[in-house]
Please model this.
Amino acid sequence: MNAIFNMKQILISLVLLGFAAPVLAVPNGDLLYQDMCEACHGKNGQGGVGVPLSLPDFQRDASDEFLIKSIRNGRPGRVMPAFPYLSDAQLAALIKTIRGFVSEPAKPVKVPKAIQGDLKRGAKLYQQHCAACHGARGEGGKGTGVTFSRPRDAAIIATSLSNAAFQDASTDQMLWQALAYGRKGTPMPSYLEQGLSEQQISDMVAFVRTLKKKHAKPEAGEAMAPFIVSEAEGSINDVLESVKEAVIAANFKLIRVQKFEQGMVKEGSESPDKVIVYFCNFALLNKALALDPRIGLFLPCRLTLVKEGDKVSVFAMNPEAISESFNNEELDRICQQMRATYEAILEEVTL
Ligand code: HEC
Ligand code: HEC
Model:
């Protein structure tokens, strides 16, 4: 991906600027933004799937360091990807582009030098004032802001406050001023205007700091396995029969069995050693679809059987790996349940 972006960027730069040699040394922030950010954050940072970057209050709160960390590390578990491969020069260029989205950032605001809050009071205030939007544990707004059922100009999603990357990127001061002064143009209100005291705001900052999720998501490099695999003895037909039985026993309806290569090779010449079994539980399907329509991309349920030597491997997509990026706790629960069901089916088959 990195290589592709860079090549494209270099090629475009070369064409635009008439092959001037120094172009390669100075990254073009506008092009980087177009390539990597615009689809989510909007042409001029006005927002979309991603939160707006062009609002004066956001630009006031977001230091360069916050932007750099947010871009480099992304928000694992949320929709915001990480861009760990960007060079310092590329990041600087991107930030220049982002700063250019606003003609004037909001005026600097007064923030107490020492932010010391009372956790207990903060916890209470948080539940009272913040949980409705940011979630009881700071997990952020429901969904991702991209559910297909919502228009693109839907209300701006409340960011995840418990996200470890957000916690690492932000300072107490940044939290304090976001809380105290709000973000005009978004649903995030100013709590000074709402009548809370400076001390109460410090109390909430102290509490927000306790929300940081520890190891909630796999660290980079140890992402959740995308497949669950199991090996069974016997011919492909034997294993296929026991898969069918196990699927039905687990309350699914068998939809169809087809050769893996169907439609990919000439009819009749599909390998008999690779088959897919499609099945569905309509109650579960409707429940999952109601929670997030994107789940439809992965349905109906399927198991893939592949004969290798005298064994048959049975593959299932890991539903938890799918739900991981959707940030929807109810969906997570269904997918955990699905994973357990898949594992039970595989165990049944390989017994
Ligand atoms: C696939 C969509 C997507 C892409 C691509 C993307 N972002 Fe984001 N970005 C998001 C979402 C969604 C959030 C909000 C995170 C949350 O929900 O907690 C976000 C958050 C951010 C934040 C933090 C904002 C805040 O208020 O905390 C910054 C800064 C940011 N993105 C910059 C960028 C830049 C620069 C790029 C390109 C290099 C980029 N993003 C690419 C979706 C995206
Ligand atoms: C009505 C919904 C709503 C309420 C209530 C609310 N927020 Fe927000 N909050 C948001 C939205 C939406 C954003 C994203 C704004 C943006 O894109 O700049 C946000 C942004 C923030 C940010 C900046 C995060 C970032 O990534 O830049 C912090 C910190 C924050 N909220 C904390 C709180 C706390 C603590 C409370 C309770 C005192 C609270 N919010 C109440 C909706 C809300």
Notes: Residues 1-5, 13-23, 144-153, 215-222 have pLDDT under 50 and may be disordered.
